[in-house]
Amino acid sequence: MIWFFLCVGLLVAGYFIYGKFIERIFGPQPELKTPAITMADGVDYVPMSDKKVYLVQLLNIAGVGPIFGPILGALYGPVAMLWIVFGCIFAGAVHDYFSGMLSVRANGASVPTVVGEHLGTVAKHFMNLFAVVLLMLVGVVFVLSPAGLLANLTSTDLVYWIMAIFAYYILATIVPIDKIIGRFYPIFGALLVFMSVGLIIGLIVSGKGFYNTGMDFSNLHPTELPLWPLLFITIACGAVSGFHATQSPLMARCMQNEKSGRFIFYGAMIGEGVIALIWCTLGLSFYDSTEALNATMANGGPAAVVHEVSTSLLGTVGGILAILGVVILPITSGDTAFRSARLIVADFLKMTQKPLMKRLLIAIPMFILGFIISKAEFGVIWRYFGWANQTTAVIMLWAAAAFLIKEGKLHWVCTIPAMFMTAVVFTYLANAPIGFGLEMGISTIIGLTATAAITVAFLVKFRQPLVSSTSEG
Hints:
By secondary structure, the chain is an all-alpha fold. It has one domain (1-14, 33-380): Amino acid/polyamine transporter I (Up-down Bundle). 75% of the residues lie in helices and 0% in strands. The radius of gyration is 21 Å and the shape is globular. The protein starts with a helix and ends in an 11-residue tail after the last helix. Its main location: membrane. InterPro entries: CstA, CstA_N.
């Protein structure tokens, strides 16, 4: 448990030290009026308090990703926790901060508009399509996973829960953001805190420690799946996740002061990192070996681990509350995924969203398509979601780096994580069954070559010298 608390301490230190450094580079201007003030429409642009915006942002980004991903990542051993900590501080939280703040500066624009502003028209049109596809995959994943948990908990047919969750999503997608999301998500946040703190206390009381690995940071996966690049695709939410770039603009439309950006965007990602650490620790500690953890997942996936761990550590009632917390997480991300998709389509069509009928005109076809996608095999959807998610993060990080270059600021804080994640997604695409299925050595060469070529092209395009200014300019 000492290792767990050390990792949490590093995340907190990252917020106060590196987060402050990132904020200084960006240079927030508290005297500027934010879109929540200048473009208030009572639907999507609604001023809310910092605490409320933070909790909504946390729940928006914390779906099943920081639970299921770290459980799957625990199969690799303690090295998964290193990725969560350093990925969150130096990549994920940086990604979230810039995706949120660049949206604020662009009048609350969605991620395709932000990307297009800094990387060009071609990148904008690509992101319009890519972001909607990602959000549809996210929405469907975040229907199927909570529906499965609820079906197991209540012994009710899965189809009924899928229909019920879709019905809620339709409602949450079209009503003003402060009516459901802004009103009830802070309450859900309290349940999330109960779940997270309760489970880690239960683990401490149980006396369980890491299974017999010590601090072995080698690859301990029982089926010998390669750590590179799979770990960095498997654990996305909790380390770095492109899905967050689609969610940050929602809160960029509700934030009242640019100085709040570090707390809301960087801070919410740190909070998600703590959630990811908790579930990775539970996976590493509750079971006697990676083989035992893998055996449980073979009989129901990560959801089976959630159910077994929660009921064992917190008893029947506490376990049910913890499971409900895990159910709420994806639902509170799934509804905002569809909401973001609606806004991206509306931005592309230049269609105002204040009239209800115009919101329905986009939302209804979108949900029909989402229901059709939900009929596909969950494992296939999850794999495509994982790759699409990290590819979105890559594009957003390159866009943030381009912004910093144009401003004459230290762009390497975004360029280096962009390079790393570029290598990850190209290597994964070359190697994975959903991609080209090539041998890992060849795939890695392809990934590194693609990264080098993209980096050189990027630096040449922006004619950036090797040394940049860190001034706020």
